[in-house]
Automatic annotation (TrEMBL):
GO terms for molecular function: hydrolase activity. Pfam families: Metallophos. It comes from the Bacteria. InterPro entries: Calcineurin-like_PHP (IPR004843), Metallo-depent_PP-like (IPR029052). Residues 1-213 form the Calcineurin-like phosphoesterase domain. The lineage of its organism: Bacteria, Bacillati, Bacillota, Negativicutes, Veillonellales. This is Calcineurin-like phosphoesterase domain-containing protein.
Length: 235
């Protein structure tokens, strides 16, 4: 099993159909991890537009590899919450479709022999122009229970994991994303503040995140921002 990581998909068909060409190494038994803003499902079941969700999920399900994603800020949380939870790879997931799984917040998974801590969510910079329960959800930021669970999981792991995958990033990585930070605005983001606290205690090999729509690697900070790039775990 090989593990690959990419950034936001936003439920965009051209991005999804281009995955095999952008990463021909992805094969049977491998896993693609999406660092938030998966964007599927988005439309209410039964609506004409929901057919697009069905189409995109079928496209991903038909690939030889398994797709896993953490949630971002642009997700339909009303729909995500309808899927049943199950235990897989040592942590809690939601099965969205065959070979497609939502990796829940604050979980520690073992994939390909690596321990991977996941934590989704972020604050939307465009929420003022969106409608609650239609195109924006308050669940985009972590709840107190989710934060507490993440801390419990990390304490059990003695605050050491191999890799971290989040949607937004701790403030310690500002130099990586500052040129892409939506006109350089620093929002008051509760999830980012939480991750900043975790970073102060956590040891890891590499931290991957999306959200800022760019691709940049920092060896000195042991982190990587992803959007278009698809990289193998560890790169």
């Amino acid at each position: 099993m090989r593990i690959f990581i990419t950034g936001d998909l936003h439920g965009e068909e051209p991005v999804i159909t281009s995955i095999p060409a952008r990463c021909p190494q992805l094969g049977k038994g491998d896993v693609l991890l999406v660092a938030g803003d998966f964007g599927i499902p988005w439309w209410q079941p039964g609506s004409d537009r929901s057919k697009n969700d069905t189409k995109l999920l079928r496209l991903l399900s038909d690939y030889e590899f398994t797709t896993c994603f953490i949630d971002g800020n642009h997700e339909n949380f009303d729909l995500l919450q309808t899927f049943p939870y199950e235990e897989r790879w040592g942590g809690r997931v939601e099965k969205i479709a065959p070979h497609i799984y939502h990796l829940c917040r604050g979980e520690l998974f073992t994939l390909g022999g690596h321990s991977i801590f996941t934590f989704g969510g972020a604050t939307s910079v465009d929420k003022a122009s969106r409608t609650e329960h239609v195109s924006w959800w308050s669940e985009e930021n972590a709840s107190s229970a989710e934060k507490a669970h993440g801390i419990d999981v990390l304490e059990h792991a003695n605050w050491h994991v191999d890799y971290v995958i989040t949607h937004t990033a701790p403030e310690q990585f500002f130099s990586v994303y500052q040129e892409l930070a939506f006109n350089k605005l620093l929002l008051a983001c509760p999830t980012q503040a939480y991750l900043t606290e975790l970073h102060n205690r956590l040891t890891y090999k590499k931290w991957y995140f999306g959200h800022y729509h760019g691709d940049k690697n920092s060896n000195s900070l042991q982190c990587r921002l992803l959007f278009d790039d698809i990289v193998e775990l560890g790169e």
